[in-house]
Automatic annotation (TrEMBL):
PROSITE patterns for this protein: PROKAR_LIPOPROTEIN (PS51257)
Transport keyword on record: yes
Name the UniProt record assigns to this protein: Phosphate-binding protein
Gene3D superfamilies: Periplasmic binding protein-like II (3.40.190.10)
Superkingdom of the source species: Bacteria
Bias-annotated ranges (Low complexity): 31-44
Keyword Transport: yes
Species per Swiss-Prot/TrEMBL record: Virgibacillus sediminis
Record region (Disordered): 28-54
Residues annotated as domain PBP: 49-304
Signal peptide start-end: 1-20
Assembly and binders: The complex is composed of two ATP-binding proteins (PstB), two transmembrane proteins (PstC and PstA) and a solute-binding protein (PstS).
Keywords tagged on the record: Cell membrane, Lipoprotein, Membrane, Palmitate, Phosphate transport, Signal, Transport
Family: Belongs to the PstS family.
Lineage, broadest ranks: Bacteria, Bacillati, Bacillota, Bacilli, Bacillales
Length: 336
């Protein structure tokens, strides 16, 4: 009896399982399949997200003070929205000083630059066994600024800018440019030799004529802004972004390149724009060996090129054409 009762119970249990399976072979099967599909997609998505979120460590960047606001903005977004476990450290020693740090054993991962890398810097990289990868980021317009109370020098010709800042330009006072202007000594200020902006100004605008030895050259751009803002007779130069973020303190000079005065703006400093003579590309240089060795460096390089046009305008740079961005992305992707 006990055995028979046991067998009956087992049979009933088996039948219940079979019925449940058969009863669920319609919509339930479809739901299960859809569920598996969703779970698979979500699982794969989660897996990729987890793999990306596993990135950690640091990305070390130095260099151009001009490029700093753009790169700092990208780094902030990356750490908040992409890789919170990665620390992106952005400094601003200046282009040339930054290259010195970049081009040494255990140097920085990236160097921001407001001028192209020089032959001697490439030679140093070759000695160290790597070839820097140039990443063109955006376009900047070198901007001549004056004190807001200066209502006479709001427009200058390209040649007048050269005359003001060169040692042999013969310009000491505003009246040396125009006899109707104040007979007041001009306070000339600009970034020092650590900065690519200085080199661009010296090489491309002054055409390698000696800079006035009395010019007040400074390391910090904030100091330059203050010097112009506090002196009615001051004139200075730096990237458009610093002017754009300090419009309440300084005023931009419109430059006449031969076809009438042109005010620097995101539109005029665009590629082939009317401000082209004072326009330059800005870069960051990547050590590709670091990108191959450290996943976070490669990931950040990709993020920079994917996102740079989203933040260029708000930090005072004209964006690059999308085809240029895509071509550079392909080069970075090929590193891994």
């Amino acid at each position: 009896m006990k055995l028979k009762k046991y067998l009956l119970l087992v049979a009933a249990a088996v039948m219940a399982i079979v019925l449940a399976a058969c009863g669920g072979s319609g919509d339930s099967t479809e739901d299960a399949s859809a569920g598996e599909s969703a779970a698979g997609a979500n699982g794969e998505e989660t897996s990729e997200t987890e793999a990306e979120a596993d990135l950690e460590g640091s990305v070390v960047i130095d260099g151009s003070g001009t490029v700093y606001p753009l790169m700092a903005r990208l780094a902030e977004e990356y750490m908040i929205n992409e890789q919170p476990q990665v620390s992106v450290e952005v400094s601003r020693a200046g282009t040339s000083a930054g290259f010195e740090r970049f081009l040494q054993e255990d140097g920085t991962d990236f160097n921001n630059a407001s001028r192209p890398i020089k032959d001697e810097e490439l030679a140093k990289a070759e000695e160290l066994g790597f070839e820097p990868m140039e990443m063109k980021l955006a376009l900047d317009g070198l901007t001549i600024v004056i004190n807001p109370e200066n209502d006479w020098a709001t427009e200058l010709t390209e040649q007048q800018v050269k005359d003001i800042f060169t040692a042999d330009g013969g310009v000491t006072t505003w009246s040396d440019i125009n006899p109707d202007w104040p007979d007041k000594e001009i306070e000339k200020v600009g970034p020092n030799e650590n900065h690519g902006t200085y080199e661009f100004f010296y090489e491309n605008i002054l055409e390698e004529q000696d800079l006035d030895p009395n010019a007040n050259l400074q390391q910090e751009y904030s100091t330059l802004v203050n010097l112009v803002a506090e002196d009615k007779n001051a004139i200075g130069f730096f990237g458009y972004g610093y002017y754009d973020s300090n419009k309440d303190s300084v005023k931009a000079v419109s430059i006449d390149f031969g076809d009438g005065p042109v005010e620097p703006s995101l539109d005029t400093i665009a590629e082939d724009g009317p401000y082209a003579n004072f326009t330059r590309p800005v870069f960051t240089y990547l050590n590709p060996d670091m990108a191959k060795e450290k996943a976070q460096v490669h990931d950040y390089a990709l993020y920079v090129m994917e996102s740079v046009n989203d933040f260029a305008g708000e930090t005072g740079f004209a964006p690059l054409p999308e085809e240029e961005i895509q071509a550079q992305l392909e080069e970075i992707e090929a590193l891994n």
